[in-house]
Amino acid sequence: MRLTNVEHGHTPAQKAMLARIAEARGDRVPDVLLTLFYRPEFFGLPFSDCLEEKLRGSSDWSLGEREVFAAFVSSKNQCVF
Questions:
Q1: Res 19 pLDDT > 90
Q2: Cα(32)–Cα(44) distance, integer angstroms
Q3: Residues 20-79: pLDDT tens digits?
Q4: Other CB atoms closer than 10 Å to residue 34's CB: what's the count?
Q5: Contact 34/6 with Cβ under 8 angstroms?
Q6: What CA–CA distance (Å, rounded) separates 70 from 76?
Q7: Using CA atoms, how far apart are residues 63 and 57, in angstroms rounded to an integer?
Q8: DSSP assignment, residue 78?
Q9: CA triple 68-27-79, angle to 5 deg
Q10: Is 43 within 8 Å of 36 (Cβ atoms)?
Q11: CA–CA distance, 81 with 74 (Å, rounded to integer)
Q12: Residue 81: pLDDT band by 50, 70, 90 thresholds?
């Protein structure tokens, strides 16, 4: 199910940023970015803060190990992001 607001409910500044991202990628913007930009105070910023803490916070795993693990899980989920 695709939500129209997540695809089209962005501010002009967000639309400009998303257009630059799509141009740089040579492809459409990944859905996760559309979601992060849509209502960032509700989902985008809290999710990004949590992700940053998990990838950069204290851990028995090195930063590289965490990045590889995240890439592995994404590939298993067939997620290109």
A1: yes
A2: 9
A3: 999 999 998 888 888 888 888 888 899 889 988 888 889 999 989 998 998 999 899 887
A4: 20
A5: yes
A6: 10
A7: 9
A8: T
A9: 30
A10: yes
A11: 7
A12: low
